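FORM 12-B: Structure-to-Sequence Request
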């Protein structure tokens, strides 16, 4: 945590940071005033800057709808599930059960991938195996139920099955490789960071 604060403080002390912020503000003002600087909006009547601001505000409001339930889930996960239970279900010796639980949690999830990282941090903090947490993140990113239903209805059931079975196999192999490539002190550092947050 100190390292991140040091980086942030050095960024805030940098003149280049403030110059880049000033340039962005200047570009936005020029765009709003209608001064063309070489980039055109798809809609010639709308300012590119105002279109971007409208899109950003929509995304911000969407995130406000998603973030509170995710934090509630994280709080409940942290309080209700004892460390011993997490180690037993998803820890180093959990085997197929840990993979299955990571798969179920990942597919039943809702919201963007950014919501999965705090959940993964709690899993690591509670002692879940690193490869199971990676597998959970990968499943959350690509094999959530809404995505699977969309794939099946638009691309067909056969394609959905083939692509997702292939992805699951690749994810399982990839997570095991990543876990084996990590040195013990690197893995310990990851768990220490998860517990410190």
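FORM 12-B RESPONSE
SEQUENCE OUT:
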């Amino acid at each position: 945590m100190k390292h991140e604060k040091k980086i942030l403080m050095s960024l805030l002390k940098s003149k280049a940071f403030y110059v880049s912020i000033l340039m962005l503000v200047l570009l936005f003002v020029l765009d709003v005033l209608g001064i063309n600087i070489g980039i055109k909006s798809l809609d010639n009547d709308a300012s590119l800057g105002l279109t971007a601001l409208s899109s950003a505000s929509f995304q911000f409001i969407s995130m406000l709808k998603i973030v509170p339930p995710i934090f509630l889930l994280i709080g409940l996960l942290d309080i209700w599930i004892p460390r011993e239970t997490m180690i037993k279900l998803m820890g180093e010796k959990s085997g197929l059960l840990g993979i299955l639980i990571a798969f179920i949690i990942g597919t039943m999830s809702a919201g963007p991938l950014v919501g999965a990282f705090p959940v993964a941090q709690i899993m690591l903090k509670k002692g879940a195996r690193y490869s199971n947490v990676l597998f959970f993140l990968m499943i959350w990113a690509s094999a959530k139920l809404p995505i699977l239903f969309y794939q099946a209805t638009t691309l067909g059931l056969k394609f959905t099955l083939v692509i997702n079975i292939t992805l699951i196999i690749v994810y399982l192999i990839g997570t095991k490789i990543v876990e084996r490539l990590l040195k013990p002190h690197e893995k310990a550092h990851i768990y220490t960071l998860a517990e410190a947050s």
